[in-house]
Amino acid sequence: MCGRYTITGDLVELEKLVRFIFAHGARPEGPRYNLAPRQQAPVLKWESGQPTLKSMRWGLIPHWAKDETIGDKLTNARAETITEKTSFRKPFEHQRCLIPADGFYEWQTTPTGKQPFRFTMKDGGFFCMAGLWEKWIRPHQEGELGLDDTGPNLEQIVETFTIITTEPNPMVAAVHTRMPVILGPEHYNWWLQPDRFEPQFLKTLLRPYPAESMACCRVSKLVNNAKNDSPECLQPG
Fold this sequence. Notes:
237 residues; mainly beta; hypothetical protein yedk fold; nine-stranded mixed sheet; five-stranded antiparallel sheet; globular
């Protein structure tokens, strides 16, 4: 699985990989050293004919869900079964997204507890993980105004995402049994455009990223607590 990741660089650098526009509120307030489920994160989706960076909550909430707690169980989607699961089948066909990052964490079980490792590109730059997004409308609560003449209030609309995982490459396999799907820049637009390619073709992109293009570093156990989000998380562990 992929349970935490980092965005420590300026997202302007991401434009070297893919041209996009910022949606209102999509720019993070600062670097993220330990981004965790339930938190807001920048996500690239296809909107108005181009890649657009939006802020979404990590943990996919299907449009049919009665409450948001299901999102805690849907932070990742397995590539092998993505077309079989009710929660992921429709988003995989029409609502794919890219999750920018410059590192992700995996844990190794040791006699002294879980030891985190951070995986990056060799050059330390940005990369994009394959994901799915959904739009969920929070049910009306007693005492709320609810719907107005134009539909749901903005506060009721929640956009969420999940990260697709696959079997690990040899580097990640030394630490964990899964890794996020990392797409090459040549496939970004293919992945984002809703109806350009058949799902069966897109599924062929969901494979381990080459280990020779990546780097790995043992980091501080501060990462184990999602409340810790500081540069110290990246210190050698």
